[in-house]
Specification:
Layout (H helix, E strand, L loop, with lengths): L2 H11 L3 H4 L5 H9 L5 H24 L11 H10 L2 H76 L5 H22 L2 H31 L9 H14 L2 H15 L2 H83 L1
Helix pairs in contact: 4-5, 4-6, 6-7, 6-8, 6-9, 6-11, 8-10
Length: 348
């Protein structure tokens, strides 16, 4: 076995062992790297540096193999076998594979977290529509009671002062008092105020959950991308322990339960349809806004281009004027010279 053949094989393969282990999951690894969850080059550098340091030792071992030994087909197969038996090399690969698993776990956690957050926002908005309707009903009852109470007081005062015996002044206060008692009883019967307070508390919980879910994402994104210097144990504890101990998942489950209790099936259908219509209008407004912004940009570009054209034209006009002035000055100078020459000739 000559050294030349070994060198040729080394050059053609160019240290591919540092990435051999990822071939079965190359698409996933590249995707995680591209999306910023892991920085693979950091781990490849560690592995390939170790291979370079180990190269001479592996090459010496290969050269000491008897030529009749057919255990290894070539230097590359020998090198692969030696590295796969090397504890430090396997530990470096395990370090990278562990980071890939953590990155995959973080990606899934963030995706699930985002789904949970958007779902909670949707429920909060749908529940908000019911709250608005309930608030309108309560406001209508309270305003009508206030207005009619003032009217009742005014009529009674007017009746006492003027001592009017008209029957209307006796019936109207009774009707007003009856209406006030009726709408007040209706409000208590349907528990408008209690339902309003319940929805307010539910809204506070949903807002808290949405903010906590967003904060989780912030904490995870701070540790990205994962490199060979990242503390994988700390990352694992953050996902497995810290986010489990905060009790947020239990609160989310309770909030969904309260939402189902306070939103009947009819309410869900009714307000979901209203929510969809609002979303459609919102999308249309966004599209209109983008179209308007695009038109404004195009208009600004046209104005800038028009100003540039005007500037160029003004420069050309100024240049032509300068040329005319120069020509006029030259002509006048020539005339002066000719007249002076003629005068000199006459003097002679």
């Amino acid at each position: 076995m000559s050294n030349n053949s070994v060198d040729t094989e080394k050059e053609s393969n160019s240290l591919q062992y540092g990435t051999d282990y990822k071939k079965n999951h190359s698409k996933l690894i590249e995707e995680l790297d591209r999306e910023g969850f892991i920085y693979n080059a950091s781990f490849y550098e560690e592995i390939e540096t170790y291979i370079l340091n180990k190269e001479n030792e592996i090459l010496t071992g290969y050269q000491n193999i008897n030529e009749g030994d057919l255990t290894y087909q070539n230097y590359e197969s020998y090198k692969r076998d030696m590295l796969n038996k090397d504890t430090k090399y396997l530990r470096a690969i395990g370090h990278h594979m562990g980071a890939i698993q953590k990155a995959q776990k973080i990606k899934k956690f963030i995706a699930d977290n985002e789904i949970q957050k958007e779902k909670m926002k949707k429920y909060k908005q749908i529940k908000g529509l019911k709250y608005n309707d309930l608030k309108i009903k309560i406001n209508n009852i309270q305003l009508s009671v206030i207005f009619l109470s003032i009217a009742l007081t005014f009529l009674e005062s007017l009746h006492n002062i003027l001592e009017i015996d008209n029957i209307a002044f006796s019936i109207i206060p009774i009707v007003i008092s009856g209406y006030i008692s009726f709408v007040t009883a209706i409000g208590r019967f349907f528990k408008y105020e209690d339902n309003k307070e319940t929805l307010v508390k539910l809204d506070e919980k949903q807002s808290f959950i949405i903010n906590r879910l967003a904060y989780r994402e912030v904490l995870l994104k701070r540790i990205l991308p994962i490199t060979r210097f990242s503390d994988q144990g700390k990352i694992n504890n953050m996902i497995e322990l810290d986010f489990t101990k905060d009790g947020l998942d239990e609160m989310i489950s309770q909030t969904y339960q309260e939402y189902d209790i306070n939103m009947s099936y009819t309410d869900k259908l009714q307000y979901k349809e209203e929510w969809i219509e609002m979303k459609k209008r919102d999308v249309q407004q966004q599209l209109s806004s983008k179209t308007l912004q695009k038109k404004e940009k195009d208009l600004k570009k046209k104005e800038i281009k028009s100003q540039e054209i005007q500037t160029e034209e003004s420069k050309e006009i100024q240049t032509d004027q300068d040329k005319e002035i120069q020509t006029t000055e030259n002509n006048s100078l020539e005339i002066d010279i000719e007249s002076q020459v003629g005068k000199n000739i006459k003097d002679i």
